[in-house]
Write a structure and sequence with these properties.
This protein is an alpha+beta fold. It has two domains: about 1-30 and about 110-185, Topoisomerase I, Chain A, domain 4 (Orthogonal Bundle), CATH 1.10.132; about 35-105, Gyrase A, domain 2, CATH 3.30.1360.40. It has four helices and six strands, in the order αββββαββαα. A four-stranded antiparallel sheet has the order 3-4-6-5, covered by helices on one side. The protein has a two-stranded antiparallel ribbon with strand order 1-2. A hairpin with a 2-residue loop joins strand 1 and strand 2 (about 50-55). Helix 1 packs antiparallel against helix 3 (about 110-145). The mean pLDDT is about 85.
């Protein structure tokens, strides 16, 4: 019984860490008015007859705080990269000069900033739902173990450990959301 509880704790902690990592990656994709190459993560370009991640066909770099440069390794890929950016509907317009694609990130309006903060909070709430789901699974295993003969004192101790774990991970979610909100609202 005790080994089953140890296993569920390890699984639960791993699941919660994965939820935090996922939140971190999702928050990186929300642009805050600054040039950030992470906004192209998950963007695929039609290359040599199959879709490929943009990072495999081009070098992506920030020239300054408002400009991103995309330089395909094969110049014939310029139009394909440009079409993929248009198709992704990122709210940006690529400018192709025959050598590189320049993307100027427009400054955000106050309304757009508020929308992005709402989007970040929504992603944060989804992460908290994942944490609660993991907590529920862990508590179910503990309750089952108590029913099967584990002492109630040990069960209560394990319950409090789960609550401490969820509190710790919830604080991490709140900290990430607060930092992103500050980043978005900074003009």
């Amino acid at each position: 019984m005790e080994s089953e509880i140890i296993n569920i704790f390890q699984e639960g902690k791993k699941f919660m860490e994965d939820a935090i990592d996922h939140l971190h990656n999702e928050l990186r994709k929300i642009r805050a008015g600054k040039a950030n190459t992470a906004m192209f993560d998950g963007l695929f370009v039609e290359a040599y007859g199959s879709p490929m991640p943009i990072k495999q066909v081009a070098n992506i770099a920030t020239a300054d705080s408002r400009t991103i440069l995309i330089q395909p390794w094969d110049k014939s890929m310029l139009s394909n990269v440009e079409q993929a950016i248009f198709a992704a509907n990122l709210g940006i317009t690529p400018m192709n000069d025959g050598e590189v694609i320049r993307i100027t990130i427009p400054p955000l309006t106050q309304d757009r900033r508020k929308d992005l903060v709402k989007q970040a909070k929504k992603v944060g709430e989804e992460a908290k739902v994942s944490l609660r789901r993991a907590r529920h699974k862990m508590l179910d295993v503990i309750k089952k173990a108590v029913k099967d003969g584990l002492s109630e004192d040990i069960g209560k101790d394990r319950d409090s450990e789960v609550e401490q774990m969820i509190k710790s991970f919830s604080t991490k979610v709140d900290d990430l959301i607060t930092a992103k909100e500050k980043d978005i609202l900074t003009v």
